[in-house]
Specification:
Blueprint: H1 2-11, E1 19-26, H2 28-41, E2 49-58, H3 62-65, H4 68-75, H5 81-101, H6 107-122, H7 152-158, H8 161-167, H9 179-185, H10 194-203, E3 207-211, H11 221-230
Parallel strand pairs: 1-2, 2-3
Helix pairs in contact: 2-10, 4-5, 4-11, 5-6
Length: 235
């Protein structure tokens, strides 16, 4: 990303020195702290003025966030009391597996933790490929499984030859969810990016905004609250 931004500024010098913000949601809870931390402390030659980060409904600290699937699901009537207690106990085991995966030799255990924790969380959905509700807005049904939204207009626009030519990506094809990319990211899933956020807060003037919508299940606000409360920084 730093190399991309260097190239962008070189080819578009009118943006040199501009204030720069990094924002995103969901799995961006991983890559926003990573990119922000790298730019702040490593890519000091980058001719952009990084001012702030914004993480919306993000997955940042799995250890503190996964147990909140039980609380959020129960509070919103997605599961009953009996299954809540099952999930509550299971999430303690989930946290143990996540802790093991964070050890220096924990790469294999990382996948074990992901499988166990995600299967337990997905039990709320029934069939994750055809979930009982929209995982991004529990008030809605899942209109087009498994992503729940109709992306056909975006597919048409982004696969149009003129659009691809304008973006400089002729000969490639857009997909709204690429399973190969998803698979490559799985090894990073249980990584805790909260320490990078704390270092940014301690070592720079960069502002950090963490926010959550209250109807999203997959990266719910309970989890967002949990990891931000667990974050410790000096200032």
């Amino acid at each position: 990303m730093a190399n991309f931004l260097r190239g962008f500024v070189e080819q578009n010098p009118e943006f040199a020195g501009r204030d720069f913000y990094i924002t995103g949601e969901s799995y961006a809870g991983h890559y926003i702290p990573a990119i922000g931390h790298y730019i702040a402390f490593e890519a000091t030659d980058l001719d952009l003025n990084l001012k702030g980060l914004a993480i919306g409904n993000g997955l940042t600290d799995p250890y503190d966030q996964y147990p909140q699937y039980a609380d959020f699901s129960y509070e919103n009537g997605l599961i009953g009391e009996e299954w809540y207690h099952v999930m509550e106990g299971g999430m303690k085991a989930c946290q143990g597996l996540i802790a093991e995966s964070q050890k220096p030799d924990g790469h294999v255990r990382d996948i074990v933790a992901l499988e166990f924790c995600q299967l337990l969380a997905d039990s709320v959905l029934g069939n994750p490929l055809n979930p009982k509700f929209n995982v991004y807005d529990i008030r809605e049904g899942c209109e087009v499984p498994p992503m729940c939204y109709d992306f056909s207009q975006a597919d048409t626009l982004l696969n149009d030859d003129a659009t691809k030519a304008a973006l400089g990506v002729s000969g490639r094809r857009w997909t709204d969810c690429n399973q190969l990319v998803h698979t490559f990211l799985l090894g990073d899933w249980m990584t805790n990016l909260m320490p990078q956020v704390a270092e940014i807060l301690d070592g720079t003037d960069i502002e950090v905004l963490v926010y959550s919508g209250d109807k999203d299940w997959i990266c719910n606000w309970r989890g967002g609250e949990a990891w931000t409360l667990a974050t410790e920084w000096a200032n």
